[in-house]
């Protein structure tokens, strides 16, 4: 649970004030003092009268203070109607689940296969969208409609604990799930209903109203979803989404601690994919915002106690870059044309939009650099959410990412496969039938080479057109360093059941030092090995776990 702020020793509870007005506790104490000193013992009712009057005045003050809040709540309840967004039959994998609370022991009979030799003890934690109150929500009013997009469900942590018996021969495996207890989740839970009006997608007037009402009622325009990632730094673990600060979590219980603002030094949203710089152990972060400054980069000390550097890159737009790269000496910034622009709403457009006709560029800056020290390389417009890795090679910075021609955000769904497309019943390296994915949403492994001396850039695809890929991973020991292997999840989907969110039915392993014999124009394909899950089995949130030792 969230820790309460301690009271200062110099400010005892009976002396605390609120809003410049003495509290009822301090006034009552003063009244009792006046009664015992300044009144006759024949008139004890005077002190009681002052005490009651003080209590009444304090209650009236609170009522007056709460009146605007109650009025706004009543106005929103009368104007906006919340409805649940339905999932079609092919999307049941994405339906929210209940918290387990305490960890549940998984019996050996429930485990298929074997835990590999050399697998270390530890805990796997996945963070993901799990909408509160059973579904994502839409609202309708005289102003039009607005709706939550598919990434906006509240964050739920799913933990699998791997421990060995005292003899070290038998595994004990348990599972637990808990919501990230963000400030806004606690608010809506206390009210037993959704309160934040959707403010990303919908009719312009409804979006503007959502911004205004959310800010007036709660002091922020959107809720803290905290649903995107879990990261560790300096021995602490955090749940994060890039619209707010991270929340510290307890690995053993999944309890939520305080929001982490780096000792009060970071006052803006926080990237979902910070990177630990090789060598120094510093954490490189950034935060985007719809208002200037649009993108600010930060460097947190290796012990997590201070913000060592902060730089406004002075971008002229709010780019929704989702990831940041690091090398031993540099930070890598992806300035892509997926943008957030409040001005578009006023003109009848959408808050988030992929601007196909706009520009894209990649920035390389020294670790402690500023806007003037960044070197920008213009590239063909593209969309990406996740970098594979970045590293230095001579005069070049090499950037690897999964790249697509268009963005699946903000659109809630994308068209994928035909109804009769199914995964094979057996897992293994045999390839299933190729699965067509809408070309504009097809992610392929791509590599740029940015020459810091000549300021030239070249790029090529490293994967083909057979399978769309997402959520790349490498061994974290090689973050920012040259590496031989990378992994990604392979898109698969059951169904022409309307439009569905992507599902992942297997994994790809890339041998980056080995080239395949396949020839595709504009590509230098690397050797790729596939592993497929079973029929109707899907995955997300894969992690790389090095073998013990």
Automatic annotation (TrEMBL):
Which PANTHER family does the entry mention?
BETA-CAROTENE DIOXYGENASE, OS09G0321200 PROTEIN
Residue ranges of the region described as Disordered: 1-40
- Kindly state what the record says about how the cofactor is bound: Binds 1 Fe(2+) ion per subunit.
Q: Which domain of life is it from?
A: Eukaryota
- Organism (species): Zea mays (Maize)
Q: Which GO terms of the molecular function aspect are on file?
A: metal ion binding; oxidoreductase activity, acting on single donors with incorporation of molecular oxygen, incorporation of two atoms of oxygen
Which protein family is it in? Answer: Belongs to the carotenoid oxygenase family.
Q: Where does Fe cation bind?
A: 273, 322, 386
Keyword terms, alphabetized: Dioxygenase, Iron, Metal-binding, Oxidoreductase, Transit peptide
What is the protein name stated in its UniProt record? Carotenoid cleavage dioxygenase
List the lineage, top down.
Eukaryota, Viridiplantae, Streptophyta, Embryophyta, Tracheophyta
Compositional bias (Polar residues) spans? 23-40
Q: Which cofactor does it need?
A: Fe(2+)
The record's Pfam families line, in alphabetical order, gives: RPE65 (PF03055)
InterPro entries recorded for this chain? Answer: Carotenoid_Oase (IPR004294)
């Amino acid at each position: 649970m969230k820790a309460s702020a301690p009271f200062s020793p110099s400010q005892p509870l009976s002396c605390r004030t609120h809003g410049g007005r003495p509290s009822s506790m301090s006034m009552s104490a003063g009244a009792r003092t006046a009664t015992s000193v300044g009144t006759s013992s024949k008139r004890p009712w005077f002190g009681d009268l002052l005490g009651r009057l003080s209590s009444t005045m304090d209650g009236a003050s609170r009522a007056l203070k709460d009146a605007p809040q109650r009025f706004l709540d009543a106005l929103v309840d009368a104007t906006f109607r919340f409805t649940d967004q339905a999932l079609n039959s092919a999307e049941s994998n994405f339906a929210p689940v209940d918290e387990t609370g305490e960890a549940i022991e998984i019996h050996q009979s429930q485990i298929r296969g074997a835990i590999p030799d050399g697998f270390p003890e530890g805990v796997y934690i996945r963070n993901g969208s799990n909408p509160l109150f059973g579904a994502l929500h839409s609202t309708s009013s005289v102003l039009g409609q607005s709706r939550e997009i598919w990434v906006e469900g509240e964050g739920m942590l799913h933990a699998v604990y791997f421990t060995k018996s005292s003899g070290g021969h038998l595994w004990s495996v348990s599972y637990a799930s808990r919501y990230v207890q963000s400030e806004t989740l606690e608010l809506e839970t206390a009210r037993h209903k959704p309160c934040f009006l959707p403010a990303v997608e919908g009719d312009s007037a409804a979006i503007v109203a959502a911004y205004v009402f959310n800010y007036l009622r709660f002091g922020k325009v959107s809720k803290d979803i905290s649903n995107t990632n879990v990261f560790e730094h300096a021995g602490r673990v955090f749940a994060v989404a890039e619209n707010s600060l991270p929340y510290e979590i307890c690995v053993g219980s999944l309890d939520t601690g305080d929001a982490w603002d780096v000792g009060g030094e970071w006052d803006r949203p926080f990237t979902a994919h910070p990177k630990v710089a090789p060598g120094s152990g510093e954490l490189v972060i950034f935060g985007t915002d719809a208002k200037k400054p649009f993108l600010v980069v930060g460097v947190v000390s290796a012990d997590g106690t201070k913000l060592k550097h902060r730089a406004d890159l002075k971008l002229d737009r709010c780019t929704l870059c989702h990831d940041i790269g690091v090398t031993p000496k540099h930070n890598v910034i992806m300035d892509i044309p997926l943008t957030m622009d409040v001005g578009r709403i006023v003109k009848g457009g959408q808050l988030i939009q992929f601007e196909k006709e706009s520009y894209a560029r990649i920035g390389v800056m020294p670790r402690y650099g500023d806007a003037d020290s960044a070197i920008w390389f213009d590239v063909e417009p593209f969309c990406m959410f996740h970098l594979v890795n970045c590293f230095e090679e001579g005069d070049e910075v090499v950037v690897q990412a999964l790249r697509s021609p268009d963005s699946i955000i903000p659109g809630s769904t994308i068209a994928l496969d035909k109804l009769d497309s199914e995964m094979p019943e057996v897992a293994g390296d045999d390839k299933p039938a190729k699965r067509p994915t809408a070309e504009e949403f097809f992610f392929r492994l791509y590599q740029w080479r940015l020459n810091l001396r000549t300021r030239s850039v070249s790029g090529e695809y490293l994967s083909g057109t057979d399978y769309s890929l997402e959520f790349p991973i490498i061994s974290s020991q090689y973050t920012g360093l040259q590496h031989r292997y990378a992994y990604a999840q392979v898109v698969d989907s059951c169904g022409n059941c309307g439009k569905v969110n992507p599902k992942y039915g297997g994994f790809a392993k890339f041998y980056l030092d080995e080239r395949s014999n396949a020839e595709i124009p504009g590509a230098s394909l690397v050797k790729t090995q596939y592993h497929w899950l079973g029929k109707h089995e899907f995955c997300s949130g894969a992690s790389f776990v090095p073998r013990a030792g």
